[in-house]
């Protein structure tokens, strides 16, 4: 019984209990409020101020989207459920604990209502208080008033102080809500504080008065309605009193009989146990009801009370121990029957040839699993009931049947000496110690009162009952018909009021067998309660002493019932002579002497058989029973005839009957010798050992140790292969994931590409603005661009200076990264001379920043020279080359990554091919050995099939109360043999690992990585197109404005005498052609993949919120600028500087748009890449996790199970057959000599005991 075991360490239990108490108590409202806020604002999914909190608290940190909504909803349900069940289960119901536990109570409903009210208050506060605060106050005010009424009216706690405290707290909250409503209506908070302070004494007085008024309405004398809470209030005072009273018992019993409220029996049982000290009676009362059904909280209290009282009564009640013993015995028997069915199923599968290999394996494994389970059940049961002779014999014989002969014999021998020694010392008093005890369990439940629940084999024989039909009998079937009236009622009355003791204890009484014949015995009847059931345990000590018969008669001699051989003794042909007058069968009998209890020797009328008649009068309750004994033993007749004193004759006969009832006559010696003989026969019978000890072991253990070691080694190699295959798949996919992760993270950022592209675009923009401002200043014309525009982009360019310096070491994969720090860029430092020196990009940026500022101060030629001849020239030439090289480097890295993955894939294919060849060879070798093993098993089972059935039938007939064979024995007809295709079974499972891993690998490389690679290439192409477009449009327009300057003799050659740049017209055509190529690249498939719909719309459709030339998309805007530039280039001679205002205005707007949307465009190109990488990541993780689950939870356990099957088939004791054959002759001689000894001493002991009984009276006379 689990509840009898006290856990050694309850630390974890205490910690968990304290955490639950904190969560459902102190932290309940904060947790519920937090989850409700997450639920609300995650559903709205927008950042806003949390109105339910004090101060300006933003909802940004609790915006968790639909995930947060779902999880917070689940947590709220779990928290409410946890609080509900905690209040329903965790409370003290015992009235005896009312003075020590202030929160002890009879019902949890008040606390549950309070918890639900708190829950409603918090949730409504979050979801309703914002818009309908007045309605919220009214609603919670009404609910708070109801809770206050509940605590006042029902007074749930046993302690008056606790009732007052809770009621006062709830009424305080109700009043505060009212005060707050008044203050809210008057828009004055002072009134809330003042009224809350002033009204405190009045609140206390109102609560006290309300509680006292409620107490005055509680009447103990009347039960007016079917309300168990009111009833508990009526009898609470009596239940809490120190002095016990039976009136309380009667009052509760009366209420239960009238209203059938189960919980009141908990009060009754606790009262019996704590106040009256009758724990056994308490257990019987609480066991009258079941804890299964409706009312989960009441059922839990019933269950807790039952288990507590069962634990209290277990060590003092033999009846309760016996009930637990019977329950464990039934569990063992059921498990054994399952084992037998499994063995027969295995045998039939081999016989019929229709069982699949999987079914045979499952059945064989189940068989050995059941064997282990049964051994554990026996071991645990024997630990609790070592005195049970039946358990020890069943376990020992089972061990012998399973082939563990030496262990079984040793166990049986040790248990035999244990039982014999303790019986001699009278140490075994348990009613289940003797396997031959006559015991039955009788139901005491109202629905089947008197029905037989269990009956021992000896009791069945005594009462002439077929064991299979035993449970269809009732107790009245074994009571003479004349005493049926009020029989059950009298027993039930005893059960309800006096069951603390025993109904009968070694009481001499006659029962009727199933045919109505009397059986002399002594009764021990005890009542128990266990697991929602009340039962009687009836133990019988059989009286079979001297030669006699008996009859139960009326006072006039009419026979009510008689023993089986009475009619034969009276020389009557009829078997049953009930309702006949017994005195009419004797010759010249003075029946009056018989009726007054005098021994009378008389003769029968028919054959003049000499008999001694002796009448005993017994009183059971208010009923008198007359038992007439008819003794025909010659020794007794001679002894009584020789005794002149009537009183001495009565004394001798009563003494003789008393001794017989205590089992000190010849019958005891017969039984003890018979038991001893049966035990030796059980242990040493060579038939038992030879026929049963080897049947199951020979049929189920067929593999020699050498073959089993070889097979087990092969299984270990297979398991190692599986693990290596799994690790290969894991490692390869991790390599893929890490490689892709590094490249994806690099592609997401593309820092070098983005920073260099922005620097180049800022340079192109700055040089165009600078040249435009310079020409406007020289021609004294207004300009669309202002110095602030130049300053803005100049600062932007300078901000990249530090970025280049910090990131240069990370860009070592880019061959042109040396231009950042090393002097590789050719520059003209002297505008009056065409001499070239070399500088780096960082210095160029610094010089550009300085020269722009200097140009804006005076518009001199020197800073313009550096900006055009160096900065602009480098932008067109060297920086563009570096940018193109960077693009090529990114694409090359992607190509190398693809090559790496292909190499990994084909390497994995080769490894898998090698592993596949190895596993094929290993599997075939293993298949041959396993086929031999299973063929041997099939032969062994077919050979021993009939003997197995006979052995199982024999055990079932011996221990399971079955007369017929449960497994019919028929001739063996083998229809067909079973094939054992282990090779294909194992290959399919091994292939599962390989194929599944290959699928993961294939999909990772050719699906997800392929998509990721497309997106990475597309991102590079997108960056190439978008960044170059920004640069080319400014560079083309600079050559356009330079065409105007050349026409007006204000070009670079005119200013400085030379120009390292293209001629203006050639430069314009060159940049225009590059723009055409760039537009063609924008329609690449890779670029279209990476562009998200909203960006595609802005490029080729329309830009929302924009007017003018950007309205129809960026592409159309650039085309419009292109046509305007073409128009100006053709008509340059006819234009003045103002003709450039329109195009400059559009360029300025385009520059601002580019600057504003640069980050958005770059991010949009990374979203698809991120999504694909996340898909790859989750696919690999999920795939590897799935593969791990398959390997760890299916493949490896499957092969481990196969190994266990081989271990189970291994022969453990090779010399068992030789041992049993060598001992056969010795055991046969031993038990035969014992039989002869018992038979020879049988007659001598029969008369010896009778004479010894009569000696004391003879000496006395």
Automatic annotation (TrEMBL):
Positions of transmembrane segments: 20-43, 63-85, 164-185, 191-213, 718-740, 900-924, 990-1010, 1176-1199
Name listed for the protein in its UniProt record: PAS domain-containing protein
Keyword annotations: Membrane, Transmembrane, Transmembrane helix
Keyword Membrane part of the UniProt annotation: yes
Presence of the UniProt keyword Transmembrane helix in the record: yes
Superkingdom per UniProt: Eukaryota
Organism, scientific name: Stentor coeruleus
